[in-house]
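Q: Convert this sequence to structure tokens.
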Amino acid sequence: MKRHPVLPSRRALALWVGLCACGGGIYVDGNVPLTVPSITAFTAVPAALDAGGGTSTLSWTVLYADSLSLQPGVGNVTGLTSWHVAPTATTAYTLTAYNAYGSKSATVTLTVGP
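A:
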């Protein structure tokens, strides 16, 4: 019996090329990744405040998120890239990004002290 090589379909080959070109993400219609969100940066500036108080700016960069939540006490920040806070005590802020494939969280601690 003669064996014939099995060649990938055009669709499978296109998917493989797409995976190689985009670093491993799978895309629908060439532009929307099928992946959980990614938080590439989450910072507090300044990261420390005097005991007397003050304000700090929380800033973030997020990829592939449909919605964003900032806790404690803030809530929905979808569409925003920063938020000003004025805590009276050291506080850990958690940013959570959501989409249909899951969620990703990052935390930054803003120190208030002597």
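Strands lie at 27-28, 32-33, 38-45, 48-50, 56-63, 67-71, 75-76, 82-85, 91-99, 102-113.
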